[in-house]
Design brief:
The structure holds two protein chains of two kinds. Chain A contains two helices and four strands. Helices cover about 25% and strands about 30% of the residues of chain A. The chains are: A alpha+beta, B alpha+beta.
Chain lengths: ~80, ~140
């Protein structure tokens, strides 16, 4: 069950997130969206108002509280 | 920005903003950063991205740490490339337990523990203040 603070809709991808996806060979935004919709685990990010979604692939997705994808990093 | 410890040093060079001209909090506050570190047996050098709002939190927490309002603080970056735990260890000594990770390329991490004089921590904060003057936070979340 999701916490009330976790965004329940997807926002946009930031330019930084798209750069990081490209750097990590994640071509498709759908892989990132799938990680957000079906995460293995969700934790709070290191920065206030951010959330980290662990995918079952080798990356984590960082979003803000509006659901915008801020970054994609390796697990 | 240099953290010189008893057995090694960590240096963070904040080179430039990654994006200009959007006025967007989540786009403009990334700093392209060069991490350099020297520990016995290791010379580390890699690039990563650190946010200015993270640096502001580091600065504010360091101020409380130096003023003895907090006995330990944790400074972490959003993309998890830098994690530093400062713990007071006596009157003048500070233990710094850190992990630096090359999140951009290799994923390799180095864990280290340094002991620093409080004057080093004060200088670290002053350097952080100067960096924030050079790269202020743009926009609001």
């Amino acid at each position: 069950m999701r916490s009330a603070n976790i965004p329940n809709s997807l926002g946009k991808f930031t330019g930084h997130a798209l750069d990081q996806m490209q750097n990590r060979g994640i071509i498709s935004p759908s892989a990132v969206m799938d990680a957000i919709k079906n995460p293995v685990r969700i934790t709070l990010g290191n920065t206030p108002n951010t959330f980290v979604y662990f995918s079952n692939n080798s990356f984590k997705v960082i979003t803000n509280n509006f659901g915008d994808v801020i970054s994609v990093i390796s697990q | 920005m240099i953290l010189q410890g008893d057995i090694g040093r960590l240096e963070l060079d904040f080179l430039t903003r990654k994006e200009y001209g959007t006025n967007n909090f989540w786009e403009e506050n990334w700093l392209y950063t060069l991490v350099k570190a020297t520990f016995p047996g290791f010379i580390v050098r890699f690039h990563c991205n650190v946010r200015t709002d993270d640096l502001q939190r580091w600065h504010d927490d360091l101020a409380k740490f130096i003023d003895n309002e907090l006995s330990s603080i944790t400074l972490t970056s959003l993309e998890e490339c830098i994690s530093l735990i400062f713990i007071k260890n006596g009157i003048e000594d500070t233990k710094v337990a850190g992990v630096i990770t090359d999140t951009e390329l290799t994923g390799c991490s180095v864990k280290f523990t340094l002991h620093c004089d409080m004057s080093i921590i004060v200088n670290f904060r002053v350097e952080l203040h100067n960096i924030l003057m050079q790269f202020p936070i743009i926009g609001t979340p």
